C-alpha cells in the first residue's frame, strides 16, 4: 500500500537540521525499495494558494493555513501496512523538530476503472 508522509515543521527549525541528515535518510529509504518519490519544498514565501468559488479563481500568496508548522516536503512510500509506514516516517529527520503526517493513498484511478 502507498502512503504519503507529509513533513511539517517550523521553517526556522529546519535550519537547525543539516540537509545531509535528510539526504542520508533519503538514500537509505530509496535503497530499501520503500521510497517511490520524495522532495523538499521551497520556503513558504514562495507558495501560492488557488481556490475556485462560484467559477471565480482566487489566488493568495503563501500557504493555505495560518499555522506555526508549514509543509516542508514529502515522501511517497510503499509499506505493507500502517505500522510499517509509521516506523518509516519516524525515521524521517524532521520528525525530530516537527511532525510527519502519514496518510494512505486512495487508489482513485484503479477504483474508477473498476466502476466502469
Describe this structure in words.
Helices cover 29% and strands 35% of the residues. It is built from four helices and six strands. The strands form two sheets. A four-stranded antiparallel sheet has the order 2-5-1-6.
Explain briefly what this protein structure is:
The chain is α+β, with helices and mostly antiparallel strands.
Layout of helices and strands:
Elements: E1 2-9, H1 11-14, H2 19-31, E2 35-40, E3 48-53, E4 56-61, E5 70-78, H3 82-90, E6 99-104, H4 108-115
Antiparallel strand pairs: 1-5, 1-6, 2-5, 3-4
CATH topology: Alpha-Beta Plaits
What is the number of helices? 4
Assembly context of the chains: single chain
- Which CATH class applies here? Alpha Beta
Q: Return the average pLDDT rounded to an integer.
A: 88
Order of strands in the sheet with the most strands? 2-5-1-6
Silhouette: flat
Low-confidence stretches: none
Q: Structural class of the helix and strand makeup?
A: alpha+beta
The whole-angstrom Rg is 16 Å
> Could you tell me the strand content as a percent range?
35-45%
Amino acid at each position: 500500500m502507498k502512503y504519503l508522509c507529509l513533513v511539517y515543521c517550523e521553517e526556522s527549525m529546519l535550519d537547525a537540521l543539516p540537509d545531509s541528515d535528510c539526504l542520508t535518510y533519503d538514500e537509505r529509504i530509496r535503497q530499501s525499495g520503500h521510497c517511490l518519490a520524495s522532495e523538499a519544498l521551497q520556503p513558504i514565501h514562495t507558495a501560492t494558494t488557488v481556490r475556485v468559488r462560484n467559477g471565480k479563481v482566487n489566488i493568495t500568496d503563501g500557504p493555505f493555513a495560518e499555522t506555526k508548522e508549514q509543509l516542508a516536503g514529502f515522501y511517497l512510500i510503499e509499506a505493507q501496512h500502517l505500522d510499517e509506514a509509521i516506523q518509516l516516517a519516524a525515521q524521517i529527520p524532521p520528525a525530530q523538530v516537527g511532525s510527519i503526517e502519514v496518510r494512505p493513498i486512495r487508489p482513485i484511478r484503479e477504483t474508477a476503472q473498476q466502476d466502469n
